[in-house]
């Protein structure tokens, strides 16, 4: 159940990501509302901040101005990535939510089925959706690659975000259609 929950958390973030690209709804207000809700429920993030940083990533991929890139090993890159996105107010929101939920939910269950899966999903998103696709040198303007996996593995690992080159080539394509771009 921890891994199922982790995958669902990852999906919540991917939903917010798709909202950042306007692919949830043709109605901009509905699209943004879903994006705000998904990213706030994911980890108390603020959509506008993530939106700006994500589009900065698309404009300045693989450069010093790219908030998703660090030319270091996995752990240094991961911690730089997290420091670019996590804020003190977000940590306060999550701490308040945890302490309020503790009133009704056993703390062991909170740790096992909320905290652990949400933390693991940050690794899942980073590893399969950022680190592997952007690691190393690439022969394209997006400095990205596509992970050589089958569609089922691509879905399970990160909702097709291993098809990262395709995402950069077609950012307005929602996650559930990225496999078509790969073909």
Question: Gist?
Answer:
By secondary structure, the chain is mainly alpha-helical. The protein has nine helices and no strands.
Euclidean distance between termini CA atoms: 32 Å
Strand composition percent: under 5%
Mean pLDDT equals 92
| Structural class by secondary-structure content | mainly alpha
Uncertain runs are none
Overall radius of gyration: 16 Å
Query: What would the principal axes of the Cα set say about the shape?
Result: globular
- The helix content, as a percent range, equals 55-70%
What is the count of β-strands? 0
Helix and strand layout, with pairings?
Elements: H1 2-20, H2 28-43, H3 47-59, H4 74-85, H5 88-104, H6 107-134, H7 151-158, H8 164-169, H9 178-182
Helix pairs in contact: 1-2, 1-6, 4-6
What does this structure look like?
The protein has 183 residues and is mostly helical. It is 68% helix and 0% strand. The protein is built from nine helices and no strands. The mean pLDDT is 92. It comes from Pedobacter jeongneungensis. InterPro entries: FA_desaturase_dom (IPR005804).
């Amino acid at each position: 159940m921890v891994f199922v929950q982790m995958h669902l958390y990852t999906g919540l973030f991917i939903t917010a990501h798709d909202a950042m690209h306007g692919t949830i709804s043709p109605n901009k207000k509905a699209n943004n509302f879903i994006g705000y809700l998904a990213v706030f429920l994911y980890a108390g993030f603020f959509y506008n901040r993530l939106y700006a940083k994500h589009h900065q990533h698309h404009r300045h991929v693989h450069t010093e101005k790219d908030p998703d890139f660090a030319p270091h090993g996995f752990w240094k890159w991961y911690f730089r990535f997290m420091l670019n996105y996590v804020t003190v107010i977000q940590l306060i929101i999550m701490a308040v939510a945890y302490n309020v939920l503790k009133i009704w939910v056993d703390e062991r269950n909170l740790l096992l089925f909320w905290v652990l899966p949400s933390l693991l999903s940050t690794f899942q998103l980073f590893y399969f959706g950022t680190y592997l696709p952007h690691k190393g040198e690439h022969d394209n303007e997006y400095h990205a690659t596509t992970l050589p996996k089958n569609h089922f593995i691509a879905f399970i690992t990160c909702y097709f975000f291993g098809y990262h080159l395709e995402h950069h080539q077609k950012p307005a394509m929602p996650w559930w259609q990225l496999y078509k771009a790969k073909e």
